Amino acid sequence: MSTSNPSAMSQPIKPGLPDETGTSSGASQAFLASPSTPTESNRLETLRQELRTAFVACRQSTLALIDPDNWDLLCCQSHPDFSPVGWHIGHIAYTEALWILERLDRQKPLRTDFHQLFAADGLPKSERQNLPDWLTIQHYMETVRLRMLDYLAIAPVDRQERLWRFLLQHESQHCETLSLVMALHTRKEAALFPQRAAPNPQDVAEPSPLVHVPAGSFQMGCDRPDALDNERPAHTAETQAYWIDRYPVTCRDFRQFIQAGGYRNADWWSEAGWQWFQRHPVSVALYWVDDPVWDDHPVCGVSWYEADAYARFAGKRLPTEAEWEKAARWHPQTGQSQRYPWGTDTALPQHCNHHHRIGHTTPVTAYESAASPVGCVDMLGNVWEWTATLFDAYPGFRPFPYRGYSETYFDDEHYVLRGGSWATRPWALRSSFRNWYHPWVRQMFAGFRCATDE
Fold it and tell me: Is 8-187 a CATH 3.40.50 domain?
């Protein structure tokens, strides 16, 4: 599922709501469900205001990505694995209308003709290019959002909070996919990596320093209202002692692999990876810029196969998902797991490169002050990071808000990525967040870091 995961966001929405979302046959039931005590009323009003502020800010960020003058271009499919940008925009509004207006508030559909067009299982990706004009989509988005916020003002959000936060992340994740689709449209390196001045010597990363993480247990996953179904339930996980890279693999590091003939030497590749490479020969990362100015930026746009090959070349391996999460959030002094590498504060500009604030990758040393308790830097934002773990359910998993959202991908064919990218929004950025992709996909803003056994 994920900002960068097109397949996860394209699963059919099944009928029915889990009990924990709460349902309503209209505004009157929402009023009746409201608590009677002043303290509880105040708490719910604070939650409503928090959600309203987040949805407004998220939508402003979405609209900032759209250039109406280029709407015709945004309705074209740039890659067979990804829907057109314009489809993502319509799908975001359609999904809000389906879950909030139709299923919670029992309103009639605003546009019955949009069900096949914008439902995730309505049309194949290749047939999603015949879209309405921008003014029609804009009007639909605005109408859905105004009605949705009207309902929020009276909704029993204590019983629905998890669904509201799911929808906030749904828009965030689609917009990260939207960002990479626009990058594929342009296919111009300058669009992602503008010309920059030479790096400051103090920003230059050390060559592959390693951080030691001792053996033991830690709390993995999350049970907070914004945690997606695949992050739940929080549980105890064990790891052996290991070493993990302090920083993501940089372009300087990856250049050594390129120059040593890593893309031509089968010794460094898994059997499946080498077979993929024979069918799809490449020589650099997808978003590669052959300029030393970018040497201390993380390599960006590599498949799992490429990341695995580099790790073998370097005499290391990819970290497991549990190793990555422990290095990101476990505090050796308290024995507790933090929400973020830097603590409990929501992601801010000083913590990591995210939310399009910079618009491209940054040097891996740029956020040293936000290192994790064990000393790993750049764990959130900048680039997603591949792990060695196949995507699967945690013990006690329960699907939400519909069975296919994550469960469809527990198929031993998708690998987990962690950490987010420079385009990830704060609502989908935390140490427990899980993304997943097929090992051959290299279009998302993904890199990796390596690990070794003790």
Answer: no
